[in-house]
């Protein structure tokens, strides 16, 4: 047998390469929904025999086949279920208050998300780390039954240790506590905070931390970027803020990074809990059941503001949900689109939607940081600015420290906030959570916040952008080619 292999190894290798390449190419052609992705992978497989098929096996196949809790009603029973259903926003309510175009947005959300647009919510913006961390720690200190926390980064620094102490104290009071940290984000601190939590009796797990065939590569890019805390099923905190002292002026001084987080109550809390509970069950195998995790009826009045929908997205059955919502929102805008994003790398479809809105006469303002914590991402996103500046959009570089906020406001009526950046990672690879909000008061306050940022920002001009040295512009374009994995 060995002699046969030695004599015919080139032929055997050719046959293996042919079979592997054909199988991988067929799989890519049959499963990829975007023609560019399918063509790209087939090209790599054909031009790099065996190696290309191996790369596709590691990085090209979406192995996320998980069951999700498709609706918060899966967690409710009896009378509570009816009470939650009574708080769903109706088509008539949305049409009366916000017009037919936002009723169309409701229809879109009903069809592409797993959660309802609900009335009877409250939402409070927490403008910086000190305000957000203080409010979260206060709520944790008052918890009576349950706390579930999911985050991308949970640093083992001074802020992180405050959360550890608060969570351990809750466990000692008899509160059921679950903490889920992304497997990649958990490694931002060395050693990680996991050991401290476990030593204190906190039940903790990592998202996507399993080793597959000795490799983490197939899952390294599939991260939970969600930031959610739900306490006693009554109050939740979500937005863009990780747990780290870089966002605290108390510890980082005037150089601290800026972010915006949100405190919510009402029926949307049940949806945020359902999203986090599904992630916990996927990671740990534990279904959160029993009295500690029972969701109390929301103390809300049907039909009253604020109208909110929780929007979960990720590389499973929720793939590109956030992308679809953004496309819909840009298409219904009539007067203004204001966007704040630290990493602004929209795909061709989103760029087309934005410039089409601008050509219709919609004022499109995009605010990005002057100081960015990810220099390569900043260079890559600058490579796309000309596509929007040529088509009536305005781009602003915000002054001051790095701003990690993800905010969007349209026509003083509709807003979108949460964990999603407008980049390929958030739109296709990460598990994200955002909130779609219909409320005049909240959205107009958000617009004033964005306008204040613009008032001290520097406008990016097309002439200045194109007159920079060619080597810099070339470097930006090269980095832009790799933007899906930055």
TrEMBL record:
Keywords: Cell membrane, Membrane, Repeat, Secreted, Transferase, Transmembrane, Transmembrane helix. GO terms for biological process: cardiolipin biosynthetic process. GO terms for molecular function: cardiolipin synthase activity. SMART domains: PLDc (SM00155). It is found in: Cell membrane; Secreted. Its main location: membrane. The keyword Cell membrane applies. Its EC number is 2.7.8.-. The chain crosses the membrane at residues 38-59. Residues 220-247, 399-426 form the PLD phosphodiesterase domain. GO terms for cellular component: extracellular region; plasma membrane. PROSITE patterns: PLD. Gene3D superfamilies: Endonuclease Chain A. It is an enzyme of class 2 (transferase). Coiled coil: none annotated. The keyword Acyltransferase does not apply. Pfam families: PLDc_2. SUPFAM superfamilies: Phospholipase D/nuclease (SSF56024). Could be a virulence factor. This is Cardiolipin synthase.
